Amino acid sequence: MKPLKIVHLVDDCTPGGVMRMLDNLLALPDFAGRLSQTVKPVSKNALGADRHDADVVVSHLSLRWRGLPALMTLRALNPTVRLVHIEHSYTPAFSALNVPNKRRFHTMLRVSYALFDRVVAVSNEQAKWMQARNLVQPEALSVIHPQVDMTGLADIAPVQTARPVIGAFGRLEPQKGFDMLIEAFRMCPQSDAQLLFFGEGDERGRLETLAGPDPRITFCGHTDDVRAAYAAVSMVAMPSRWEAFGLVAQEARAAGRPVLVADVDGLRDQAGNGIRVQSGRSAEAWAAGLQKMMTEPPVCETGGMARGLSEPSLYAARWLRVFTGSSLVEQPLADTTLMQAV
Amino acid sequence: MPTASIVVPAFNSETTLAGTLQSLLAQSFRDFEILVVNDGSTDGTLRVAEAFASDPRLRIITQANRGLAGARNSGIDAARGRYVGFCDADDIWMPEKLAAHVDHLNASPDVGLSFSGSVLIDDASRPTGMRQRPRLRNISARTILCRNPVGNGSSAVMRRAALDDIAWRPAVERRRDWYFDETFRQSEDIECWLRLVLTTDWQVEGIPGFLTGYRVNPNGLSAATERQLASWERMISKLRPCNPGFFTRWEGVARAYQLRYLARRAISALDTRQAWPLVCRAMASSARPLLEEPVRSSVTISAAAMLHVLGPGPLRQAARLIAFRAR
User: Fold this and answer.
1) Which of B4, B57, B111, B127 could serve as B81's disulfide partner, Cβ 3.0–4.6 Å?
2) A274 lies in which domain range?
3) d(CA A143, CA A61)
4) Taking a C-beta distance cutoff of 8 angstroms, is the pair B213, B91 a contact?
5) How far is A299 from chain B (nearest CA, A)?
6) Are A61 and A106 contained in the same domain?
7) Is A110 at the interface with chain B, CB within 8 A?
């Protein structure tokens, strides 16, 4: 059988969740011989409005009103191509915080999603939102939790010291909620505790001001050695204001580090097995949550599958169904790989 | 399952509860349940509620006093309706209120909170002639923070799904979730509405009409001014981490509106001591209310200035004249 030709359209090639997920997808061994995948970087508003020599075009794009004409052109020029969109950007909490005119925004999403044969949500919470707001036809919606290459994380040595070292991973941007984390951490009296930031961003100056003279807080900058970073911490905090999925939680779980996550969007999907959800967004609530993490961290089972990595072949099979449009296998709405009792 | 649940928090409201329940049982839309939450009353509130218990649509929940937010939360917890409305035990609903909100919520799947304007009523449940006439559409977080269009605690009818999206279980709570924050004794309404728009993408929208009778209590207002301001500030501090950029931009303006509101209440109470300083603080916080609502703001400033310079005499006289003309 001839391999299925897949073109991935990407409008943001900066290193981050989207590119790492894509790199992983391109390298999945299950796809060898069955898919021939290429990545096509496109500009923000042209959105790859071309005729594509492909069976499937996969959009990893940020949808917007200004991109809509290009999207319609893409659909018109490729009438027989299967169009798939993966929603990496928008979530209910994103909409709550960033969209002044929700009706207009929902309309843009409805019109855009309608141009695709299938829309893939990256978390159950995101999918629930899409359904509750009627953004997508239910039969056109799938949920797949993204995966990235986590080799090297699973054999990190277990937490050694009793000294709590909290790691915060991600770009230093308002989305990540690190401002509140610093405030909360500074309320914790534990003088031997540490808070390490791994990442860079525009907020750095402001965060450093917030950290003030507290010697327990360190900004380590961006690191390519993710393994060393996880090895250096005993737990991870994700106080994000919105998060389509939140791969850091999966990485931390793979590294055997307990995680405290905000009660928001895709982070809710991941509760259980070492990942604890912190309700409330105040610094006080988080200070209490951090201290509880230090004294009684959630149990994080170690080793292989128990570390939360879902079966790669199952993951590949989900994508194959999305790419081929095969309805031979009943596709459940929820990605149950991670679903656990909270 | 009834379509709607109406939660009636009642604390020592034996004199007004009967009027409230009559107005609810007289709703033109019939498919609802009423949950009276007797919040540790020490008067005859329970007896009044029990007199209505022959109506199968009414349930009574009795609990030790937890405050308004705690009473509402217990009511929400017991509510079975797809929509949940609130009516405090001293307010009344106009007969067509529930029908109008049910229609609105049915027709607008993006709306999580539906509200309407209110008429202010006095001790004897007579309209005072004053109304709350809020903006009804294009309600953003900014609108809620600065102008609270929902207006009072008996105006909102919410979608159950929206309530579920803002529910949380604080560490101290064992029995049920919180929707309203029970640590607040004032500003609990606006804290809840603002949290709804800051943390979920449910919309808040009003419908035309003055469908709530909101009872104003003219006594002891100005004494509570500082306390009220303090709880408003606590609400701001609590919600600021949700969206710091939003608060940086708007909290000064919102504070000005809040201070102007307190100044207006001080003026109606003819409080010569507080009105003028409140107006000054409002102006110092932001001049935007003067630009956005020039008439209302200037009237407030002039009245406070007059009260400050001339004392309560002229205003009292004016009020008497207005009352005479209205008769």
Assistant:
1) B4
2) 165-304
3) 17
4) yes
5) 19
6) yes
7) no
B168 closest CB neighbour out of A93, A177, A280: A280
pLDDT beyond 50 at A329? no
Q: Is the pLDDT of residue A51 over 90?
A: no
Q: Which of residues 188-217 of A touch B (CB under 8 A)?
A: none
Return the sign of the alpha-carbon dihedral for residues A45, A50, A53, A57: positive
Domain boundaries, chain B: 4-215, 223-326
Q: What's CA B155's distance to the chain center, in Å?
A: 7
* Model-wide pTM > 0.90: no
**In the predicted model, what is the mean pLDDT of residues A314-318?**
90
Residue A302 is predicted with a pLDDT of 55
Residue A311 clears pLDDT 80, i.e. is over it: no
Q: Architecture of domain B4-215 in CATH?
A: Alpha-Beta Complex (3.90)
Does A175 share its domain with A68?
no
ipTM, two decimals: 0.73
Alpha carbon distances (Å) from A81 to A77, A115, A324:
9, 12, 11
Say if B110 is an interface residue toward chain A (CB within 8 Å): yes
Residue contact B201–A134, C-beta within 8 A: no
Contact assignment for A92 to B169 by CB distance below 8 Å:
no
- Phi/psi for A278 (5° steps) reads -100, 115
pLDDT above 60 for A42: yes
Q: Do A96 and B110 touch (CB under 8 A)?
A: no
Give the distance from residue B259's alpha carbon to the nearest chain A alpha carbon, in angstroms.
25
